[in-house]
Each structure stands twice: as C-alpha cells, then as structure tokens.
Amino acid sequence: MKIGLLFFIPLFAQAAENSLAFIVKIQDRSMSVESPEKKKNQFTVIIENQSLSTQIGKFMVKEKNLKFISVESGHSETVEIENKTADSVVFMPVSPAFQEVELLFGKKAYEIPSKE
Q1: What domains lie within the chain, and their CATH numbers?
Q2: How does pLDDT run across 82-94, given as a tens digit for each residue?
Q3: Is the whole model's pTM more than 0.85, yes or no?
Q4: Which of 22, 56, 73, 99 could form a disulfide with 95 if both were Cys (CB 3.0 to 4.6 A apart)?
C-alpha cells in the first residue's frame, strides 16, 4: 500500500504544478494549451516543442512585445510573463509561422489547429 502511495504523490505534485502554469505544446500541424484556473498578473508559460524544427516565437499584449523565445526540436523552455493590463497575452510563433495562441486563464485545455 505504501508503495502505491509513493507512486501517486509525484503525479499529484505534477498536476498541481501544471495548474499554475500555461503549457503550450507545439506539434507540426497543431498546438495545444493547458491553462491555469485563476488569472494572475505574473505567470509561467512552458513551451514544449514536439515538432521537427526549432521554434522561434514571441509573447505579446496588443502590439507590445513582451519576450522572445527560441526552442529547439524536442526541448522545452520556461518563461515568466508579467502582464498588469486587462488584455490577454498572445504567443505568436514567428519561425516557422503558425497561428497565434491567446493564453486564456480558466479554459483548462484547448487546441489550436493550423490555418488551412
């Protein structure tokens, strides 16, 4: 019984950690997002690049660039974002170009298909 509990504790810790950060998973033809439940002015975004190419992107609020990021294929990067405005933060893949992703709090998990 103790062994079973020890196995589940890391899973609960990971689930709790994930609920505090956005997780953006980039595949070759789509992106998926897991979002935290509560809106915060300062939050973490984890970009997981599951595509075959290096991804270069930027975080924006309206027309203002907040941060730029480059993530190699098969790797992930963590970014701290501060947004004190009422507007949503958008992650925009620059190279290769892809549809932008609005980071929405409280939406749990959602997918962004490629523009056809």
Answers
A1: 2-113 (2.60.40.420)
A2: 999 999 999 999 9
A3: no
A4: 56
